[in-house]
Amino acid sequence: MQKINVHFFVLLFAFITISMLYAINNVFAGQPKNFMQAVKLGKKYYKTPVGANGKSCLTCHTIADITGKGTKGSLVPIPPFPATYFPKFKKASIYSNKKIPYSLQDQLRHCILRGEGGFNYGPNSKVVEYLDIYLTYISNGHRIHVPMTKPKKK
């Protein structure tokens, strides 16, 4: 009986700790007073590890790749001005050919969860929102690469 209680409290403590870390990452993401402060906060999150494995966006995607000034040194090449490639359509699952819309924020959540070993940020995440603002800001004024029509079936 005593052994069960100890395990229960250890699990409870771990659950509460993880929940608090998730809340801290979202609640204390910062409260910018204007748009440019939101851009700077997004740039900060781009460079700051938000996952358990100590990786940040910058670990895999160099700023040179994003700004279009070169691609040397990048582990995962991304197109210059990444926000111009979203939204896009991706397969709903590996078992289906159905395509669903996929936003830049969806891609950011995927990278944080899978690439950085971070939390699964929900749709109201401030971290993801500020990363989106930063990437959209540096993509501003560039040609959009999103196809405007559905691909023809072959």
Explain what you see:
The protein is mainly alpha-helical and 154 residues long. The protein has a single domain, classed as Cytochrome Bc1 Complex, Chain D, domain 2 (Orthogonal Bundle), CATH 1.10.760.10. Helices cover 48% and strands 5% of the residues. It contains 6 helices and 2 strands. Strands 1-2 form a two-stranded antiparallel sheet. It is globular, with a radius of gyration of 19 Å. The protein starts with a helix and ends in a 15-residue tail after the last helix. The mean pLDDT is 76.
- The CATH superfamily appears as Cytochrome c-like domain
CATH class reads Mainly Alpha
Report low-confidence residues grouped into runs of 5 or more. Answer: none
Structural class: mainly alpha
Number of helices: 6
Number of domain modules: 1
Percent in helix:
40-55%
Q: What integer value in Å does the Rg equal?
A: 19 Å
Predict the CATH topology: Cytochrome Bc1 Complex, Chain D, domain 2
Biggest β-sheet: strands ordered side by side in the sheet: 1-2
- Give the N-to-C terminal Cα separation: 65 Å
Number of strands: 2
Question: Tell me, what's the shape?
Answer: globular
- Please state the second-level CATH architecture: Orthogonal Bundle
Average pLDDT across residues? 76
Q: How would a crystallographer describe the biggest sheet? A: 2 strands, antiparallel
SSE order, as H and E? HHHHEEHH
Query: What fraction of the residues are assigned to beta strands by DSSP?
Result: 5-15%
